[in-house]
Amino acid sequence: MPELPEVETIRLTLEPKLIGKSIIGAAVHFEKLIQNLAVDDFLKQIDHKQFVRLSRRGKYLLFYLSGDLVLTVHLRMTGQLMVEPAVNPLAKATYMQLTLGDGNELRFRDQRKFGRVALFDVHHPLAAIEKLGPEPLSTEFTVQCLKERLNQRKIAVKKALLDQEIIAGIGNIYADEALFLAGIHPARLIPSLTAEELEQLYNAIRQVLTEGIENRGTTKR
Fold first, then answer.
1. Catalytic: 136?
2. Any catalytic annotation for residue 3?
3. Among residues 71, 100, 130, which one ends one of the domains?
4. Averaged pLDDT, groups of 10, the chain, 221 residues long
């Protein structure tokens, strides 16, 4: 499953291809792909909207549209997003097409159909996004922040790192890499960690995620 570095890499790749482009047509070929709206309502609301900016929150991609709308995509296991000429034949498992005014399309493919798309008003974010923990590469994520997020939790440290409400964006790959770098066994219970180990873990989290982005991610896109 794509984790923070992979999703950030996708954002950086798509951003210059989408900003300023308008959606002049759209199609959804798998009804359950749209998480919070009927497909007809979704298509009606995004019609002729323009991509204003792209962002990321945890493992979610956020496409800010004109009209104060935000289109979110969670790729889950096998979801893929790509911009390609609208004249190209649709690849197998393409479940959404957003036709752009420049003759290209933003296409969503997903072999296993686990990915989800949602649309919401910028002033009323999805509950799932509101519940996400801090971004581990943000300035608000400090050693003290990590200690506070883990405080009074009596679970294995890896399980805590995978909890998106504790820290956003970390999955199996980067949890394992960070713990290995910090010299901490994944099954260690949080109360057993020393202050020094927590600081090592904090530094390791930021290092492996930063290197992951620099290397354009590790999982297949």
1. no
2. yes
3. 130
4. 96 98 98 97 98 98 98 97 97 98 98 97 95 98 98 96 98 98 98 98 98 82 37
